[in-house]
Amino acid sequence: MNVQQQSSDRRGHRPPPLPAEILKPKLKESTLTEVWAGAEDEITAELDKLLPESAGESIPELEELSAKEHAAMAVRLANTGEDAKQKAGSTLADEIDTVAITQEIAPLAAKEEKSWGGLRKLLNRAKEALGLSRQESKEAAKKRSGAATEASENHRERNEDKFIEDTDLGLYAIFDGMGGQANGEKASNMAKELVLQKIKGLDKNVTGEPLLAALKQIYLETNQAIWEDPNGAKNVEPKKAMGTTATTVLMRENKAYIAQVGDSRVYRFRGGKLEQITKDDSAATYLLDVHIKKGNLTQAQAEKINLFLENYSDDSQLGQLTEHEKSIFKTLYENRHGMYKTIGLEENIDPAVLTVDLEPGDRLIITSDGIHDPLTHIDLEAQLNAAANSSAKETAEVILQLVINANANPLSKRSKPDDKTVLVVDAPRTTKKKVRAAA
Questions:
Q1: pLDDT band at 4 (very low <50, low <70, confident <90, very high)
Q2: Are residues 37 and 181 in the same domain?
Q3: Domain that holds residue 119
Q4: Which of 108, 137, 138, 435 would bridge 98 by S-S if both were Cys, CB 3.0 to 4.6 A apart?
Q5: Quick one: pLDDT band at residue 8, thresholds 50, 70, 90?
Q6: Pick from 31, 79, 97: nearest CA to 360
Q7: What is the pLDDT of residue 431?
Q8: Model confidence over 352-381: pLDDT tens digits?
C-alpha cells in the first residue's frame, strides 16, 4: 500500500481529552447481568402485589379486573423490561419488539381469566417475550455479524489487517496497517486496541452529534499515539514510518455511526443494491476532486469516471469514455492504490464522521482494500444478492473466496496480492419502541 504524505510542522499538537458528559458514568456501573436480573425482579414484584403463591386458585377480587386493566398490566410489564434494557444500553434489545409483545400477551388478557393461574401464565409469557433468557438473545446477536480474513500471498506469516467484531458493543472496524515488515501490523494492532478501549469507555446512551464528536476525538488521540511511537512518523524517516487505515462502525438502535480515515470502506446493501457509504482518502479520489475544482470535469463526468474505475476489468470498456475522460481515468487508475490521509503518518488529521440510517434487512459490508480492489462493484453486488439468504458469516467467507479466485486469474487487471478482511453486519430486525396501552 502506497502512501502520499503531506508535510507536517511537528509542533507537538495534542488533541484535548474527551468531554466527561459522553463518558460512561463512574459512580455506579451496573453490569448487563445485574440490569436484566433487576428487570425480572421488577416484573415479578409487579405481579406479586396481586398474586398469591397458590396458582390456580380462583379469587373474587380478580372479577373486578377488566380486560382493559389486564392489557394495561401487559403493557406495563413490557415497558419495565424495555426500560431496563435501555438503561443497560444493550444491543441485545434489538431482537425484541415490544409492540409484538403486547400483541402476543393482549389476547390472554382479553379473556379476562379469573384465576391467579391465568395471571401467572401472563407473567411467564411476558418474561419469555421480553427475552429474559439472555443467552438466547446473545446468540441471536452474534448471528447478525461475521468476518473473514486472510494474509497476503506475499507474506503468509503475518496479517497487517486487524478487525473488531464486538456484538455486545455493536462495534465493527477494520484497520489496514502499512510501514513494512512488522511496523504495519504494529500500527493496525495499536489502532485496534486504542479504539476498542476508548469506545468501551463511552456512555452507551450517547447518540447523535455528541457521539460523532467522540468518535472523531478518539481517532485524533489514536493518531497522536501512533505518530509519537518510536516507530512513528515523529521519530523516523517518513518512508520507514508506520501507519494504518481506520474504518469504524458503531451501531446504536437503527443507526450506524461511522468514522473513517484511509481507503478501507463501508457499504450498505439494501433492496438488492450496493451503495458505497464512505469516501476513500485515496490519491485517485483526491485527483478527481482537483479536476472538479479546476473545472476540468463536471460533477456528472466525475461520477461517471469513478463508477468506471470501480468496474473496470477490460480495455474493451474504454470505448465508453470520451478521449478527455479516458486521459483522466488513466491517471486515476495509475494512482488508485496511493493514499493522502492515514492514521499515524501525519500529526494533524481530519477524520470523516457520518451517520447512516438502517432498516430491517439492510446489510453493512466493511472491507479492506484487499477485498474491494480485486472485485468490481458489480461483482460484489451480484455476490451479495446471491447470498441474500445466507448468514453474515457465510456471506463474509464467500466474498473472501471470490477475491481469492479473482487474484488467481492471471488475466485480471484488478488482481492485487494484499491482506484481505471483510465484515458483514446485518441491521437489527426491529427498532425499540415503547408500548402504549389503548385508551
A1: very low
A2: no
A3: 32-139
A4: 435
A5: very low
A6: 97
A7: 43
A8: 999 999 999 999 999 999 999 999 999 999
Residue 321 has pLDDT above 50, yes or no: yes
- Which of 139, 162, 197 is the endpoint of a domain? 139
Q: Is-contact 264 273, C-beta < 8 A?
A: no
Query: 224: which 3 cell numbers?
Result: 497522536
End-to-end CA distance of the chain: 63
Are 243 and 102 found together in one domain? Answer: no
Centre a 10 Å sphere on the Cβ of residue 17 and count the other Cβ atoms it contains: 9
Task: Tell me whether residue 373 is in a domain.
Answer: yes
Buried b / exposed e across 72-105, counting CB within 10 Å, b at 16+?
Answer: bbbbbbbbbbbebbbebbbbbbbbbbbeebbebb
**Selection from 130-139, 347-356, 406-415 with the highest mean pLDDT:** 347-356
Distance CA 395, CA 382 (A): 12
pLDDT in tens, 244-268: 999 999 999 889 999 999 999 999 9
The number of distinct structural domains making up the chain is 2
**Helices and strands (H and E) in the chain: how many:** 13, 13
| Model confidence pLDDT, tens digit, residues 278-309 | 999 998 999 999 999 999 999 999 999 999 99
Q: Please tell me the distance from the alpha carbon of residue 131 to that of residue 100, in angstroms, as a whole number.
A: 12
- The answer for residues whose C-beta is within 8 angstroms of residue 137's C-beta and 6 or more apart is 92, 95, 96, 131
Q: Are residues 101 and 229 in the same domain?
A: no
CB count, 10 Å around CB of 22? 16
- In sequence order, what DSSP letters do the residues of 192-214 get, joined into one string? HHHHHHHHHTB-TT--HHHHHHH
The last residue of a domain, from among 139, 159, 182: 139
d(CA 180, CA 152): 13
Q: Is 38 helix (H, G, I), strand (E, B) or coil?
A: helix
